[in-house]
Amino acid sequence: xxxxxxxxxxxxxxxxxxxxxxxxxxxxxxxxxxxxxxxxxxxxxxxxxxxxxxxxxxxxxxxxxxxxxxxxxxxxxxxxxxxxxxxxxxxxxxxxxxxxxxxxxxxxxxxxxxxxxxxxxxxxxxxxxxxxxxxxxxxxxxxxxxxxxxxxxxx
Length: 155
What we know:
Helix 4 packs across helix 5. By secondary structure, the protein is α+β, with helices and mostly antiparallel strands. The longest helix is centred in the first third of the chain and has 19 residues, at 12-30. It has six helices and four strands. The protein has a single domain, classed as Up-down Bundle (Four Helix Bundle (Hemerythrin (Met), subunit A)), CATH 1.20.120.1090. The protein has a four-stranded antiparallel sheet with strand order 1-2-3-4.
């Protein structure tokens, strides 16, 4: 199956928001007093959830929702990243199904956060949210700079 990357449609936005809300609700339940706010402080909250063996299982079970929470921070911070990498949500359809991903606004350079999070959690060892965050930013920046990313068609 070929990889299809498409922009969000109006129907996708409520689904994206519902997933973020799921992560926010599960966070509030697991860590009373903690609130996801689509801010850099969310990374420390996600790290706390992953560091605790009990709440790590909850993150793993709802990996797609927590990937959305992580992605919201990444997109919100893109203007502060070294080159101001313009990022946006998109939908990726491949042999594994339909998933939300983040892409460079002009190029088809993807960050599939759900895969990155699921693969990292699966290994069960130390997991650093901030390191994953910086690695993903570096990867997409390099893909665009090296010309490995195709220019996205304009709508």
